[in-house]
């Protein structure tokens, strides 16, 4: 599998072990025990060539250069799923924060939908008011184009 496009956020399992405060070995064991939770768009294993390319590109991953094990790479969804299968206190706290973030996101979406409905109602009222105003302007314009009786002195022609 080729490396994902630039800008696609991925994390190597060693970094995640530090983040979740678990040994790398425990992280990999939990992934293997729960492999059904990690489809290819959540996690994949780098090939030797991909690992070598990654080590060349990223200096901070130099320790992988001499490792015989190909690293697991997690997408954002995989990182989230990983927090639900690990047992460390930090992983539990991160999982709770992820759930809270999803709840806030749903709430914001709902608020935005209600705001959208209110804006549409206001837009309809404004459109109606503009139509009435334009009709009145049109009627005034029509009155202005009808010939008016001359005002002033009349000069008789003799």
Your description of this structure?
The structure is a single chain. The chain is mainly alpha-helical and 158 residues long. The chain has a domain at 11-108. 60% of the residues lie in helices and 5% in strands. It has helices at residues 13-20, 24-33, 48-57, 76-85, 89-145; strands at 11-12, 43-45, 72-74. α1 packs across α2 (24-33) and α4 crosses α5. The protein is rod-shaped, with a radius of gyration of 34 Å. The model is unreliable at 1-9 (pLDDT under 50).
Structural shape:
rod-shaped
Percent of sequence in beta strands: 5-15%
Number of strands: 3
Number of H- or I-type helical stretches: 5
Structural class assignment: mainly alpha
Quick one: biggest sheet?
3 strands, antiparallel
Secondary-structure element order, as H and E? Answer: EHHEHEHH
Ends distance: 107 Å
Strand order in space, largest sheet: 1-3-2
Rg: 34 Å
Q: Residue-averaged pLDDT, rounded? A: 82
Roughly how much helix do the residues carry, as a percent range? 55-70%
Unreliable sequence segments: 1-9
């Amino acid at each position: 599998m080729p490396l994902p496009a630039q800008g696609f956020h991925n994390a190597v399992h060693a970094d995640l072990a530090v983040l979740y405060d678990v040994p790398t070995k425990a992280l990999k064991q939990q992934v293997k025990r729960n492999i059904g939770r990690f489809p290819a768009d959540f996690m994949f294993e780098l090939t030797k060539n991909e690992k070598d390319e990654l080590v060349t590109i990223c200096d901070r991953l130099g320790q992988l250069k001499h490792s015989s094990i190909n690293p697991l790479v997690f997408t954002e969804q995989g990182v989230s799923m990983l927090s639900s299968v690990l047992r460390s206190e930090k992983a539990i706290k991160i999982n709770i924060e992820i759930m809270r973030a999803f709840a806030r996101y749903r709430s914001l979406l709902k608020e935005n939908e209600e705001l959208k409905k209110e804006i549409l109602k206001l837009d309809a009222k404004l459109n109606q008011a503009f139509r009435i105003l334009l009709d009145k302007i049109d009627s005034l314009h029509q009155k202005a184009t009808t010939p008016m009786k001359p005002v002033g002195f009349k000069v008789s022609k003799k």
